Amino acid sequence: IPIALDMAKDSNGKDRELKKRIENDNYMSCAVRECYASFRNIIKFLVRGSREKKVINDIFAEVDKHIESGDIVSDFKMSALPILYDHVVKLIKYLLTNKQEDRDQVVILFQDMHEVVTRDIMEERLDWQGDEVDEQIQLFQPAGAILFPTPESEAWKEKV
After folding, report:
1. For the whole model, what pTM was predicted?
2. If you average pLDDT over residues 47-52, what whole number do you get?
3. CA distances from 130 to 13, 26, 60, 127, 133 (A)
């Protein structure tokens, strides 16, 4: 994953070359797919608010559509992936410690990840961007919008 992220960061818009380099290494390609699937699974588990679920589901649907059609690397800006990765690593650390006093930091991480994905990676291509956003209530901030701290279980810890 770190090698794939370095390649993405240094791709400088040469997405076809990046795609070719990742797909030429079967282990790297599988690692990237597994990392995405795990990330998706964790995020979908944590997001509980109806507005937040719609936003997250729309993002994943768009990403999945581009994965399916094979044009994700050319249609999205992969050079922003290392920033998203850094946020995910921080989120995982918070999930492992799982302390109530970290909730505000987790909310900020979700907001930062949303911004990186929509503005930097997808470059604001989604239609819903301005539809339901109430300026008074930010995504992920209301109580119950995200499940944190999470219920303690060995299965969850292993997943994280």
Report:
1. 0.86
2. 95
3. 27, 39, 18, 8, 6
